[in-house]
Amino acid sequence: MRVFDVFIQEQKVVSCIDIFARVGANRPLVISDLKTFVDGDEGLSIRVEGVVGSPIVCGISIRKDSPSNSGEVELPELMGVPQMQECGIKESDDCEVARELQKLQRDYEFQKKELAETKRVLEVLKRDNQLKSRECKEAWKSLQDLQNELMRKSMHVGSLAFAIEGQVKEKSRWFSSLRDLTRKLKIMKMEHIKLSEDALAYKKCLVDINEMGSTIQSTISHQVNLHEDLKIKFTEGAKERKELYNKVLELKGNIRVFCRCRPLNTEEIASGASMTIDFESARDGELTVKSNGAPRKTFRFDAVFGPQADQVDVFQDTAPFATSVLDGYNVCIFAYGQTGTGKTFTMEGTEEARGVNFRTLEELFRIIKERQKLFRYDISVSVLEVYNEHLRDLLVSGTQPGAAAKRLEIRQVGEGVHHVPGLVEAHVNNMSEVWEVLQTGSNARAVGSTNANEHSSRSHCIHCVMVKGENLLNGECTRSKLWLVDLAGSERVAKTEVQGERLKETQNINRSLSALGDVISALATKSPHIPFRNSKLTHLLQDSLGGDSKTLMFIQISPNESDLSETLCSLNFASRVRGIELGPAKKQLDTTELLKYKQTVEKTKQDIKSKDCAN
Ligand SMILES: Nc1ncnc2c1ncn2[C@@H]1O[C@H](COP(=O)(O)OP(=O)(O)OP(=O)(O)O)[C@@H](O)[C@H]1O
């Protein structure tokens, strides 16, 4: 774009000149002193080749080539005319020659004069020439000045042209943006019209929406009132259900006694042991003990579970107590019986056949999940044992059974409120956390003793589940406790014939079991005095025994005839515990009352369900 050739008279006089390299941007380049020959009226042609775009030729100055000399002509020096003698001409010859010579002399004189004249003219001309030369030089100088001026002007014109060109471009850009803007304005105007139409439509819509809003508002307030009504009705219904459910349990008995008889074990079968229990008659809760094949005594229970009954069967009758705990009632579940009759099997069970402890907690969490929209529950668990009338916290690691452990005391902190300061209460949210706590307790019990089985038979193992409930509808709060107690073995002193430390242990066990029997019996007979303070165990459970509280006792027995006296002891204990509450006279009343309440409960359940749906 910036490199080009110049041709004059079709002859390249400038080759590949780089204008930018020479003068830079926007500045004119002067190419001078190019020579050519113009013949006659042939004309002068100047051509630039290789340019791109529209460069400007600011001007062309043409001048005639000046001659190298000033025009003075050098003439040869004139020589003098030769004499006749010198020419070898003889006198004799020649007046002719003399005349010729004279003529030549005259010519010579004449030419000499002419020459002098010419010289003079030449001198004049020379002076004229010098004058003209000077004038010419001055003219040349002013011409050069003019040329420079012209060049400057041209440059100025060039830069002006360049600026104008820029302005023209700018202007065309402006025009095109103006065109764009006009087009956009047109579109915007159209959009504005459309938006105005839309706005109008929306305005109309808004009126409709406002109307709809007020309708919805009134519907909502109506629904809220309805909801509030339903909430009240639901709360009342739930309360009614709770009361009815409790009534049903009360009618069944706040103190209930189940009997569970373990199967004969392999050694007993191998030794051909005979059975002392007649399970045929046990179906209605009556249990007949035979001796040497003949019926000896009959006992009555709320339920009897024979050797065939599995953990699921047993738990079916225990599950309602879980509901009671979440309804805010205290519940105590005990397993009583001599060593090896299955107390731990009933309460703890095995990994394949979980016992009451695990299943009750599982049921608690199931109901909590079921009720989660209406109630919030907070569950914590403590595990402790009573050994030789001392309390030991099994969730505190490193404690030894008995005296070596940190002494725990039972303190009364309010009317009918007892508390064990310092007892660990592990907060649990689900079954896996519960299981971890139960395992920790079991391990601590095993680790703390020299002979785990011996020790576990001689201490009461207690799990306490503390439940804090909050009704999300009316903010009502409940606090209740579920005690799960695997009692120490109920061997008689006479049978074991023990002495020393073991005798003390046995006496302590018997004293506390007897105190428990006394308390439950006093509660069952509604005695004015309940001897809670006679043992650590009853003192500890004081708040959860009697009143609205529910008590369930599993009497564990062995079917082996050789254990007959121990079995009878346990069954007598059961009779004492059952008291008169579920005597034969009451049973008649129970059936009709129960039926009536069962119907009411069913109806209430359906009411609650339909209210739930409505909500
Ligand atoms: N209903 C049952 N079905 C099957 N096995 C049982 C049953 N009850 C007890 N057993 C078995 O009998 C044995 C003794 O049971 P368990 O240890 O529960 O008795 P215990 O009364 O707790 O004894 P201890 O007082 O020594 O703790 C265990 O091996 C247990 O698995």
UniProtKB/TrEMBL annotation:
Listed GO CC annotations: microtubule
Family membership: Belongs to the TRAFAC class myosin-kinesin ATPase superfamily. Kinesin family. KIN-14 subfamily.
Coiled coil: 101-135
UniProtKB keywords: ATP-binding, Coiled coil, Microtubule, Motor protein, Nucleotide-binding
Gene Ontology MF: a single term: ATP binding
Protein name, entry field: Kinesin-like protein
InterPro entries: Kinesin-like_fam, Kinesin_motor_CS, Kinesin_motor_dom, Kinesin_motor_dom_sf, P-loop_NTPase
One annotated GO biological process: microtubule-based movement
Binding site for ATP: G337, Q338, T339, G340, T341, G342, K343, T344
The Kinesin motor domain, residue ranges: 254-580
Organism phylogeny: Eukaryota, Viridiplantae, Streptophyta, Embryophyta, Tracheophyta
PROSITE patterns per the UniProt record, alphabetical: KINESIN_MOTOR_1 (PS00411), KINESIN_MOTOR_2 (PS50067)
